Amino acid sequence: MSETNDRDPMPVFTLKAQDVFTPVVVMRYHELCVDAGLYKHGIEVSRAYDEIMTWRERNPDKVKVPYHKHVPVDMGQPSTEEKAP
């Protein structure tokens, strides 16, 4: 997904509520906004965090380690870069 014109699409990175890492990433983003003086933006990020946590409380069985076919995850196994020669 991208924004702007077709000749130079801007990348968009999406975090899903089901992703186990989302809460910590969203809270860190909130902290960065506040530290930068972006208080109104920080409030909106905080609201998004609350919505994420509410969804997770209703759907604990859906919270999981992210998996995308273009970024395979092999839990417990070192990646190719980490393997010894």
Description:
Helix content is 40%, strand content 5%. The protein is mostly helical. Helix 1 packs antiparallel against helix 2 (39-58). The protein has helices at residues 22-35, 39-58, and strands at 2-3, 10-11. The chain has two helices and two strands, in the order E-E-H-H. The mean pLDDT is 84. It has a domain at 14-60.
> Ranges with pLDDT <50 over ≥5 residues?
none
Span between termini: 38 Å
What's the helix count? 2
Order of helices and strands: EEHH
Kindly list the characteristics that best describe this protein.
85 residues, mainly alpha, two-stranded antiparallel ribbon, 2 helices, 40% helix, flat
Strand-helix topology:
Blueprint lengths: L1 E2 L6 E2 L10 H14 L3 H20 L27
Helix pairs in contact: 1-2
Summarize this structure briefly.
The protein has 85 residues and is mostly helical. The chain is 40% helix and 5% strand. The protein has helices spanning 22-35, 39-58; strands spanning 2-3, 10-11.
